[in-house]
Design brief:
There is one protein chain. The chain is mainly α. The chain has a single domain, classed as Orthogonal Bundle (Helix Hairpins). It contains three helices and no strands. Helix 1 runs antiparallel to helix 2 and helix 2 packs antiparallel against helix 3.
């Protein structure tokens, strides 16, 4: 397989994730879409590193992206659970905690 196939897959996954972030109202689905976008970037990094012989640079950066994604999920799920307890909804349109 060539590098273009992996790049097309990465662009398709990133586009689906971007659509999910822009079109969804549930914070859980938005979080899942962000994870899909991060995984699309990881596919692109690892494929580029494999085809360009860049001495594991793509894999190392992908590990950092996975670490940031795990931290983001932990923090976002804690915020979502707190919102669900206080407001009894996780709908983005109905959450107005920051308003005065």
């Amino acid at each position: 397989m060539s590098l273009e196939y992996f790049q097309v897959l990465s662009v398709a996954l990133f586009s689906i994730g971007l659509y999910g972030v822009l079109a969804r109202r549930s914070t859980v689905l938005i979080l899942m879409s962000i994870e899909l976008m991060l995984n699309a970037v990881n596919i692109n990094l690892i494929a580029a590193a494999a085809f360009l012989d860049s001495a594991f640079v793509g894999q190392i950066i992908a590990i950092f992206v996975i670490t940031v994604a795990a931290a983001e999920v932990g923090l976002a799920l804690a915020i979502i659970l707190q919102l669900a307890r206080n407001k009894s909804t996780v709908n983005v349109d109905e959450v107005d905690l920051m308003k005065w």
